[in-house]
Specification:
With about 475 residues, the chain is mainly α. The protein has a single domain, classed as Growth Hormone, Chain: A (Up-down Bundle), CATH 1.20.1250. The chain is built from 19 helices and four strands. Strands 1-2 form a two-stranded antiparallel ribbon. Helix 5 packs across helix 7, helix 14 runs antiparallel to helix 18 and helix 15 packs antiparallel against helix 18.
C-alpha cells in the first residue's frame, strides 16, 4: 500500500501526501472529519434519545416528570406542574395532532427527524453553488449548537427544532461528501474510509445517550440537552482546527479552474450517461424510504417500549435509564462492522461478494426479520413488563441490516454522482431518510391503536417487502449506474 501511495501522480492527489498517510494508509483529513462527525452525532442522537419522552412526559402535559424516567426510579416519581400553553406555537400546532400525548409526540418526532433529512438537499445545493462545503459546514454547526442551547428555554421549543433542522441541513451532506473528496477517483481506499467514518458516527451515538440520558435522569431534562450543545461546539472546534488537512471544495476547484482560464466557467449540462446515473440513484433512494420508516422506530415506538414495557436492571445501585437503550445500536455497529468487513473481504477473495445494490436489499430483509423477535416478545410478555432481551436482540439483528445498507449507500453516492453535483446528490440520498422518518411518525400512531403483535408484524412485512423490491431492481439499477 505504501508503495502504491508513493507511486501516485502528485498532481492528481486531492490532498498532499503526508507522513501520517504513509503510516496509517489514510490522509489525516479523515481523522478530522471522523471526530467532527462523531461530536455532531453525539449532539443529534443525545437530543433525539430524549425528544419523544420529553414531549410526552414533560413539555405537553401539566403533571410533568421532573427527571427523565422518574417513574422507573426506586424513589417516588417527582412530578412538577407545567403549562403547555406557554410553548410558542403549541396552541396552533396542537389542533393538527391527535389528542393522545404519546401519539402527538410520535407524529412530532417523525416530522422533526424527517425535516432533519429534507434540508440536506438544500444544504448541498447551497454548498455546490455558492458557499462551498467548508463554509456551509461551519454555518450548520453553529446553528445546531445554538439550537441545542435554546432547547433549555421551554417556550422556545419549536424555535430550537427549527435551528437544529436548518443547521443539520447545512452540515450533514457536506461533511459526508468531504470524506470522498480526500481520495482520487478510483482509489480503492474510499469504501474503507466510509466504514471508518461510519464508526465515528456510531461512536458519538453510543456515548451520547450514556451522557445525555444520565444527566437528564439525575438532574433534569435540560442538562441532557445542554450536554448535546456542548458536544456540537466541540465538533465545530475540531473542524475549524483541522481544515488545513481537508481537500479543496468542489466549488473552489471550479473557481480556480475558471480563474486559470481567464474566464468564468460555463455551466456544463449533464451528459446522457450522467443523467442515467442520477436517475438510478434517485430510484434507489426512493426504494430506501421504507427501510428508514421501519428503522427509525428505534427512537420512536421502540424507545416507548423500552420506557414502558421493559424492566431495566440496576448497575452498582444506579437504576439504568431507558434512554441507554439508544446506545445499544451504535455499540453493536462498533462491534459488528469490523467483522462484516472481514466477511466481505473473504467473499471478495472467493468472488462471491454481493454488489452494493444487493447488499442494500439484504439489509432491508434483515431489518424486517429482526422484528420477528418483538412479535415473540410481545406474546411472551403479554400486557406487563418484560426482559431487556427482546428489544436488545431485535436491535442486534437490525444493526446487521443497517450495516448492509447505510454505509454502502453513502459510499455509492460519492462514487456514482457527477462530481459537480455530489453534495446535492448526497442531499437526495438523505431525502429518502426525510420521507422515511416522516412515515415512521405516521406508522408510530398505530403503536397505541393496534396490538403490539400486529404492529411488529407490519414492520416485518414492510422491511422484507422493501428488500425484495430493491433486489428485483438490482440488474437495471446496476446497468444504469455502471457499477458492479
Amino acid at each position: 500500500m505504501t508503495a502504491s501511495l508513493a507511486a501516485q501522480d502528485l498532481s492528481s492527489r486531492p490532498v498532499p501526501l503526508t507522513a501520517f498517510e504513509r503510516r496509517f494508509k489514510h490522509p489525516p483529513g479523515l481523522v478530522v472529519l471522523f471526530f467532527t462527525e462523531m461530536w455532531e452525532r453525539f449532539s443529534y442522537y443525545g437530543m433525539r434519545g430524549l425528544l419523544k419522552l420529553y414531549m410526552a412526559n414533560y413539555l405537553f402535559v401539566t403533571a410533568r416528570e421532573a427527571l427523565q424516567g422518574c417513574s422507573q426510579l426506586s424513589t417516588p416519581c417527582q412530578l412538577v406542574p407545567g403549562d403547555p400553553e406557554q410553548v410558542l406555537f403549541w396552541p396552533l400546532i396542537r389542533g393538527m395532532l391527535p389528542s393522545h400525548p404519546g401519539e402527538a409526540a410520535s407524529l412530532l418526532y417523525g416530522t422533526y427527524t424527517a425535516l432533519v433529512y429534507l434540508t440536506p438537499l438544500f444544504g448541498g445545493i447551497v454548498a455546490d453553488r455558492w458557499l462551498g462545503q467548508r463554509r456551509t459546514v461551519v454555518v450548520g454547526a453553529a446553528l445546531m449548537a445554538i439550537g441545542h442551547f435554546v432547547m433549555a428555554i421551554e417556550s422556545s421549543f419549536f424555535l430550537a427544532l427549527l435551528l437544529l433542522i436548518a443547521g443539520n441541513g447545512a452540515f450533514k451532506p457536506n461533511v459526508s461528501t468531504q470524506v470522498g473528496s480526500l481520495y482520487a477517483p478510483g482509489d480503492p481506499r474510499r469504501d474503507g474510509a466510509y466504514t471508518i467514518f461510519y464508526m465515528g458516527i456510531n461512536l458519538g451515538a453510543f456515548i451520547c445517550n450514556i451522557v445525555c440520558g444520565t444527566l437528564a435522569a439525575l438532574y433534569g431534562w435540560h442538562y441532557g440537552f445542554g450536554a448535546a450543545g456542548v458536544g456540537m461546539v466541540i465538533g465545530l472546534c475540531v473542524y475549524l482546527w483541522g481544515q488545513r488537512y481537508l481537500a479543496p471544495d468542489q466549488l473552489a476547484r471550479g473557481q480556480a479552474a475558471a480563474s486559470a482560464a481567464g474566464a468564468a466557467a460555463p455551466a456544463v449540462p449533464l451528459s446522457r450517461e450522467e443523467k442515467r446515473r442520477v436517475f438510478a440513484l434517485v430510484a434507489l433512494c426512493a426504494l430506501n424510504v421504507v427501510f428508514w420508516a421501519v428503522y427509525e422506530q428505534q427512537g420512536n415506538t421502540m424507545q416507548t417500549w423500552a420506557d414502558e414495557r421493559t424492566v431495566w436492571p440496576q448497575l452498582l445501585g444506579f437504576q439504568i435509564p431507558s434512554t441507554w437503550f439508544q446506545s445499544f445500536n451504535p455499540l453493536m455497529i462498533i462491534l459488528l462492522a469490523p467483522l462484516l468487513d472481514i466477511f466481505w473481504r473473504w467473499q471478495q477473495r472467493r468472488g462471491s461478494e454481493p454488489s452494493s445494490v444487493t447488499k442494500m436489499a439484504i439489509g432491508c430483509v434483515l431489518l424486517g426479520v429482526s422484528f420477528i423477535v418483538m412479535i415473540v416478545g410481545a406474546q411472551v410478555i403479554g400486557v406487563g413488563k418484560g426482559s431487556p432481551f427482546w428489544p436488545l436482540f431485535c436491535t442486534a439483528l437490525l444493526t446487521v441490516g443497517e450495516l448492509y445498507l447505510s454505509p454502502i449507500g453513502l459510499s455509492l453516492v460519492t462514487k456514482v454522482s457527477p462530481a459537480r453535483i455530489v453534495s446535492m446528490m448526497m442531499g437526495v440520498w438523505f431525502m429518502s431518510s426525510f420521507l422515511g422518518n416522516f412515515l415512521s411518525g405516521v406508522i408510530g400512531l398505530l403503536y397505541t391503536r393496534w396490538s403490539a403483535e400486529a404492529f411488529f408484524v407490519l414492520l416485518t412485512v414492510l422491511g422484507v417487502g422493501a428488500g425484495i423490491a430493491i433486489w428485483l431492481f438490482n440488474r437495471p439499477l446496476r446497468a444504469a449506474m455502471g457499477h458492479s
